[in-house]
Amino acid sequence: MELDSKDERLVDLLAEAGLNRNIARVIVYLSKAGEAISRDIEREANLRQPEVSLAMKDLKSLGWIKEKEIKKKGKGRPLKSYKLSLDIKDIVRELVEKKREELKRLEKDLEELEELVGLK
């Protein structure tokens, strides 16, 4: 379930909205896949293992990801499975609201700047 051109455009837009590109790739991939282990995310989202690990750390701190352990038969560390804790629409809504607030603050600051130097 690799990312197609529409998915890549979504990744681009999420990155332009302020998300780290790797985080955006993971979000878009998981929104399609539903749930996946790290190895699948690496392969299908075209990321390296450290990039996936860092993205997961950030996504956990944002509260946008759920993680569960899958016990393997035999020895070794259990696998971790990941899925989004929010629908991608809710993630986009959060990003859009945050950016709109930033734009309002910027507009206000620009108006104040113009007033201070006598442009208005």
UniProtKB/TrEMBL annotation:
Ranges annotated as spanning the membrane: none
Coiled coil: 89-116
Alphabetized InterPro entries for the sequence: UCP037373_trxn_reg, WH-like_DNA-bd_sf, WH_DNA-bd_sf
Keyword Ribosomal protein annotated: no
Keywords of this entry: Coiled coil
Coiled coil keyword on record: yes
Protein name per the record: Putative transcriptional regulator
